[in-house]
Amino acid sequence: MLLEKIEKANDIKQIDKKDYSALAQEIRQFLIEKISVTGGHLGSNLGAVELTMALHLALNLPEDKIIWDVGHQSYTHKLLSGRKEGFDGLRQFHGMSGFPKRKESDFDAFDTGHSSTSISAGLGLVKARDIKGEKNTVVAVIGDGSLTGGMAYEAMNNAAKLETNYIIILNDNNMSISENVGGISKYLNNIRTTSGYLGLKEGVYNALSGTKGGDNLVNRIRKVKSSFKQMVIPGMYFEDMGITYLGPVNGHDIEGLLTVIKEAKRVNGPVLVHVLTEKGKGYGPAERHPARFHGAEPFQIETGIPSKPRTTANYTDIFSTVMCKLGQRDEKIVAITAAMPDGTGLKRFHNMYPDRFFDVGIAEEHAVTFAAGLAAGGLKPVVAIYSSFLQRAYDQIIHDVCIQNLPVVFAIDRAGIVGSDGETHQGIFDFSYLSGIPNMHVCAPKNKWELSDMMKFAVNFGKPIAIRYPRGTAYAGLQDHRAPIELGKAEWIYRENEIALFAVGSMVKTAETVRELLKERGYNASLINARFVKPIDEAAVLEACDNHKLIVSLEENVRSGGFGEKVLACMNDNHKSNDYLNISIPDAYVEHGNVELLKKEIGLDAESIAEAIICQLAK
Fold first, then answer.
1. CA-CA distance, 579 to 71, in Å (whole number)?
2. Engineering a disulfide at 446: which of 147, 212, 410, 508 sits with its beta carbon 3.0 to 4.6 angstroms away?
3. Which is catalytic among the residues 229, 392, 468, 471?
4. pLDDT of residue 181
């Protein structure tokens, strides 16, 4: 086994060239076997095996630096840098992260998790290198999907001024999570059809090198290579920006990759190497269904079928169904997503109403302002984006939606603790960053029926409103408690005394269990479904203060700026002296791991909450 020879970083350089292909095959098999057990990002990693091998062969790591955009394609990098044993605990609590982490290894040059950031980060490392007088190589690896994000162009615009080497590798597999969209995708499609360019150029160089006068002619050709490329490749967008373009090159040909990386290292300026790869390469199910295997749950290797198929609807499914029904009833409803029609549940809406569906690519800022324009034009836009990704459009929410008080609905998926993807993907800040914005309204459903009711309310509300809901199975309890949705109105589910549990969104289910645990210990507790974080139901808070000793707020959001602080402010403003307990996420980032385990670790599970309440009463 060749892979057994890879025990530490740079061991790959001891592998014979003739064995590169066999090693690549072993790496793919290793990744398939491990990810089938732990789950993880399979397709992107299978497509980047040879590219990663070539980088480890061509560079002197960790002195040289690789920045992986998004970072979910870094598994082979982790394997080749001596972390093979960590794959048994991949994405598990206290185990190896599924993304680059500087605290995990010196070979991870920069923490990533969101897209379109690598060129900016790499440029910073390049300038730091130059200021310090160092000579190491810096490489940013970015996917073609990430090139739909505007930050990448801001970075390339600044990188164009460089007069020292900086290598940008475009890993082009024609996919982000779903198929790419937009002008840059069409442009790259045109370049892909000219894949003979690099081979033609190298053939000319090799034929002339070593012949009489040939070396001099090669140097002269190199000086006019930009004009040469203009004749062969249409557009030359990157060259026009001031970035030397090399490619396209076969991303599964290690020798070809080594040749082009060697050439890229000679460029005194920014250089983009265009590498063509196949997402999911080497594993049939992932090749046929690349979107499904972007972020895979544990699966059966023989078939690719999940080991534990989902049997109940999740919140994304409920949103998907409701959107289709709303779209049928109202032709003004339009849907926007940022490169995630599958992940947000809008694929069905797209199929039913293609003229009213817009996938803008990985461009959350544009998605929000585009939605504002649609609203200003008289439509009812619904923007479906994950909580952690909506953070990127904060200015647009304020400046383009809320200042104008435009009727944009934000459907915020993956809110709260999402689990194995870790710090960069936990959706634990949206209550805080949204509820401080004037004209914004924020709510969260307790179960699947309330998500449906809130969506119906939101599309006819006529003002900015956000509905946040968690990842995972949609709660089906409390079906008989379905009071009409009213702005800023909470729902009393159980009325008792002594303790008042104000729970919002996903925490209503947890609060039900907390209430039962308290009753077993002899305590009575009311349960109030808060529904709205902005505006909160102050009348309900004050009523609870009149009849209960202890007020408890429960939310799956960070404490600072969250729902609980608003409850306490209401109590203080109205001079209520009741005892109060804030159950929320501490002021810290939440690492990767199983959701239930993480909740227990931070005290957000029912048993921990009940114990905290009893301790508070004992004081």
1. 45
2. 508
3. 392
4. 62
Question: Could you confirm whether 392 is annotated as catalytic?
Answer: yes
Segment holding 250, helix H or strand E: strand 244-250
Tokens of 112: 């990533």
Least confident of 38-47, 108-117, 227-236, 418-427: 227-236
pTM: 0.87
Tell me the β-bridge partners of 558.
585
Among residues 293, 290, 339, 342, the alpha carbon closest in space to that of 320 is found at 342
Angstrom distance (rounded) from CA 532 to CA 516? 24
Contact (Cβ atoms closer than 8 angstroms) between residue 307 and residue 299: yes
Q: What is the pLDDT of residue 615?
A: 95
- The tokens describing 91, both together, are 């994405």
- The CA distances from residue 402 to 364, 395, 435, 532, 563, in Å, are 16, 10, 11, 18, 20
Token readout for 179 is: 């198929």
> What average pLDDT does the chain have?
91
As a whole-number percent, the residues of the chain with pLDDT over 90 amount to 81
Bridge partners of 492, per DSSP, are: 528
Rg (CA), the chain: 27
- Joined together, the tokens standing for residue 27 give 């790496």
pLDDT in tens, 576-591: 999 999 999 999 999 9
Asked about 325 being catalytic, the answer comes back as: no
**Closest listed residue to residue 541, CA positions, set 515, 508, 574:** 574
Contacts of 159 (CB under 8 A, 6+ apart): 119, 123, 126, 166, 168, 243, 270
Task: Give me the pLDDT at residue 197, please.
Answer: 47
CA quadruple 560, 503, 489, 368: dihedral positive or negative? positive
User: What integer pLDDT is reported at residue 350 of this predicted model?
Assistant: 97
Choosing from 279, 347, 380, 468, the catalytic residue is 279
For residue 7, the one-letter residue type is: E
Q: How far apart, in Å, are the Cα atoms of 352 and each of 179, 324, 367, 411?
A: 18, 7, 21, 19
Instruction: State the DSSP string of 304-348.
Output: --BSS---S-BHHHHHHHHHHHHHHH-TTEEEEESS-TTTTT-HH
DSSP 473: B
Angle between helix 20-38 and 49-58 (nearest 10): 120
Active-site pick, 50, 263, 364, 450: 364
> Model confidence over 232-253: pLDDT tens digits?
453 378 898 899 999 899 999 9
Rounded to whole angstroms, the Cα distance separating 481 from 192 reads 56
Beta bridge pairs of residue 441: 465
CA angle, residues 505, 511, 516, in degrees to nearest 5: 155
Q: Active-site residue 63, yes or no?
A: no
